[in-house]
Amino acid sequence: MNNLLEYIGIEPGRLHFSWISSAEATKFQDTVIKVTDAVKALGPAQRMVKDIRRVA
Amino acid sequence: MEAIAQKIREAAAKLLSEGAVDCVIGYAKGTVPMRDYPYFAYTPEEAQNLTWSPFCTNNLANFLIRRTAGEVGKVAIVAQGCVSRSIVGLIKENQITREQVYILGVPSHGMVDRRKVEARFPLKTITEVLVDGEDLIVKGKGFEERIPQKEVRRSNCYTCVQRNPVIVDEVVAEDGPNDWGGNIDAVAAPWEKLEPLQRWAAFEETVKDCIRCYACRDACPLCYCHVCFVDESQPQWCGKGQDEADVATFHILRAFHCAGRCTDCGACESACPMGIKVRRFTSKIEKDVRQLYDYTPGLDLESTPPLSVYRPNDPQEFIK
């Protein structure tokens, strides 16, 4: 899926995959911080966005 | 070509008159040039309508599925390489059983892309296309031209690796060479060499004509879900209109659902009324599965599809 999205031009880093057990609270926290930082660094998504003002 | 068609008709008539099968699925000559269509012969007389030509672009395996429960009769199907691979896939996915289907094997000579032929005669109407050996004779009002089939084949047919059927009950025509010598890796996933920004632009350009008719899905033997994700309304995964985000979602997800299953038969691309190059995304998935999982779908009944089995050495670099 990641490969396909990159292939069609979605920025690498917008989609993340992780295995986290329900017992791994710290890993979950770390991952969420990393993911949000990575996505914030990319800025707002420009692709695959439905602009409700344009659609409606 | 006509010799093969004659053999198909004979084999079909024999099966139907003996009562060995209820129906023979094949192709019949279309009313429009270059549009031979799937045909269901139920009687030996109807079997005489069957044909075989370079215009048989539908994947007949599509018609083996969705049979009503309790229907036990056997059907015969005319299958070249890609159709037989799709049948193998359907058997593996428990959609049909091997016993339900009788396969009339035919080697594929490559199918013609009617758009490539039409493009050679801009603003002209083609009224008849005849097959003469390796050439096509294209006729219309005031013109008649001969074009070699090899110049106008569908793009997936050039890189076919399995022209001969993989499983067969009755050989209608002897196997020929198995490939055309085309290298699929050289042409698959054409956007890989582009920069991310260009890729998105290329993707948008490719799907911009999509009218969401779902012909690609309906022509695909893999798309047998009773309710497709785009048709579901609770929850509605994907909007119904032609908003570009919805169109993109449909195409990305449909391609992804075919991962590890797509045999690159090209039925989707041939079915598209808008001429969208659907294989630009499906070929990427097909290539990834081949390279990352060392798997080519539909070549045998024994191997396990990569997405239904876990192996310790599965590629997992994307998981952080």
List the defining traits of the structure above.
heterodimer; A: 56 residues; mainly alpha; elongated; B: 320 residues; alpha/beta; 6-stranded mixed β-sheet; 3-stranded antiparallel β-sheet; 9 strands; 29% helix; 14% strand
Written account of the structure:
The complex is a heterodimer of chains A (about 55) and B (about 325). By secondary structure, chain A is mostly helical. Helices cover about 50% and strands about 0% of the residues of chain A. Chain A has helices at about 1-10, 25-40, 50-55. The relative contact order of chain A is 0.15. The mean pLDDT of chain A is about 85. In chain B, the strands form 2 sheets. In chain B, strands 1, 2, 3, 4, 5 and 9 form a 6-stranded mixed beta sheet that branches. A 3-stranded antiparallel beta sheet of chain B has the order 6-7-8, with no helix packed on it. Chain B contains 10 helices and 9 strands. The termini of chain B are far apart. Chain B is of the alpha/beta class and about 325 residues long. Chain B is globular, with a radius of gyration of 20 Å. Classes of the chains: A mainly alpha (about 55), B alpha/beta (about 325). Chains A and B meet through α1 of A and α6, α8 and α10 of B.
